[in-house]
């Protein structure tokens, strides 16, 4: 329906049609509210769970080989950034910058799992557009990234290979792709599977009827931002890469701590 509406809008612009037969808000006009499903519901981490998750990830990262540590480092970084999976995959070492007094990433690209190549832009943004991510105040994470850059280069040098893409989370198990012109990052599937495995090792249980995946980290950080009255929604949506409408309606959920506090405050 969305594609049809776009097509008919094009015909209106060309004076072929006078009225678009697909109205705005067509779903609500064509269907009853009871016909809609509640959609996918993401597991919403608590602050304690994120702390435990970070500790477990760091422990496993330090005990893993270079090739096996990639996905764990990616997850550590994403607990601070809450990036879309396709943005996380193509983070580059040279995108780590100091901005407004803290380290963060300045990103301008995303990865297409279907095409197995970069999209050349961020989601719903023109080519060349960029944004700064959330600041990373934990200096240990910055040190991990810088140290991993040295270890990654040493690892690749042993096989006569080079990281021509600049990807931090380059798939070090895929030697064929590393030696090609289109180097591949770790897959979204492997990142999601690793997150589930680490959560299990850390004793974190998924909430009933929810999905535990990378987007859970994005929803967690968005909820923290949206529930912090000291932080403007405009700042939050700029750093997360959403319009303010999408940020508030899709990502911001009442965090588990404040929900519990509200229940305790209510007395009638």
From TrEMBL:
It comes from the Bacteria. One of its GO terms (molecular function) is DNA binding. GO terms for biological process: DNA integration; DNA recombination. SUPFAM superfamilies: DNA breaking-rejoining enzymes. InterPro entries: DNA_brk_join_enz, Integrase-like_cat_sf. Gene3D superfamilies: Intergrase catalytic core. Keywords: DNA recombination. The keyword Chaperone does not apply. This is Integrase.
């Amino acid at each position: 329906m969305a594609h049809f509406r776009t097509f008919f809008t094009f015909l209106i612009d060309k004076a072929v049609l006078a009225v678009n037969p697909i109205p705005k808000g067509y779903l609500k006009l064509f269907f009853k509210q009871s016909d809609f499903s509640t959609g996918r519901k993401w597991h919403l981490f608590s602050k304690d769970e994120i702390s435990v998750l970070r500790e477990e990830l760091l422990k496993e990262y330090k005990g893993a080989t270079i090739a096996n540590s990639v996905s764990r480092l990616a997850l550590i970084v994403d607990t601070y950034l809450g990036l879309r999976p396709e943005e996380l995959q193509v983070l580059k070492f040279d995108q780590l910058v100091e901005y407004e007094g803290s380290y963060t990433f300045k990103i301008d690209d995303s990865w297409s799992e279907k095409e197995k190549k970069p999209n050349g832009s961020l989601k719903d943004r023109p080519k060349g557009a960029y944004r700064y991510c959330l600041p990373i105040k934990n200096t240990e994470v910055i040190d991990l990234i810088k140290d991993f850059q040295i270890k990654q280069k040493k690892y690749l040098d042993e096989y006569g290979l080079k990281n021509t893409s600049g990807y931090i989370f380059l798939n070090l198990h895929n030697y064929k792709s590393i030696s090609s012109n289109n180097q591949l990052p770790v897959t979204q599937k492997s990142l999601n599977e690793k997150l589930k495995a680490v959560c299990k090792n850390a004793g974190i249980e998924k909430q009933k009827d929810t999905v535990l995946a990378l987007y859970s980290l994005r929803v967690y950080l968005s909820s923290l931002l949206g529930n912090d009255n000291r932080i403007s929604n405009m700042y939050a949506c700029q750093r997360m890469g959403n319009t303010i409408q999408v940020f508030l309606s899709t990502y911001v959920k009442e965090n588990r701590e404040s929900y519990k506090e509200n229940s305790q405050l209510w007395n009638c």
